[in-house]
Amino acid sequence: MDEIFRQWRSERPDIDPTPVRIYGLIGQIHLQSTAFINEVLAPLGLVRGTFDVLSALRRVGVPYSLTPKQLARHLLLSGAGLTSRLNQLEALHLIARLPEPSDRRTVRVQLTAAGEALVNQAIPLVFEAQWRRIIPLGANSLRSLVDELTRFAEAISSVSERGDAVEAEQASTRSFDME
User: Fold this and answer.
1) CA-based diameter of the chain, in Å?
2) Where does residue 125 rank: exposed (0-12), middle (13-18), buried (19+ CB within 10 A)?
3) What is the pTM of this model?
4) What count of other Cβ atoms lies within 10 Å of the Cβ of residue 13?
5) Number of domain units in the chain
6) Selection from 73, 91, 18, 142 nearest residue 82 by Cα
């Protein structure tokens, strides 16, 4: 990311590339975390995407059940992205699609006993792998990181369409020293 940042600074000195660096680092962290989580989950026959579905169901508590719409919202997924994961998990008998008692047009997705057992086995493995990578930062840095990432997430979600145009105009005159 540092090289990309320097290249943009060189090629377009009229535009501050700080956002490219920030979003690039976030993307890099996401790719790296997905890779190590997939590595941890491989012996269990899971990948991050299927683990995310199982863990979303597990963390809502008994009866470990959500509608597909609720599940997609929990996972920040489209319906199509969720459907393929559900199909995979259903074929492995880790989830079941059950009729929704209050609305016959939809179903509930529920962990099976096998799904609950598998996700209960996977959760500590994933958490431990995540801890191994963040513990070197120390408690104070971790608290600061959570605070700053929370502020960043809130800032992104609060910017309106109109605000985007105003912010883009203002950003062209901003410069942050990120080196």
Assistant:
1) 61
2) middle
3) 0.80
4) 10
5) 1
6) 73
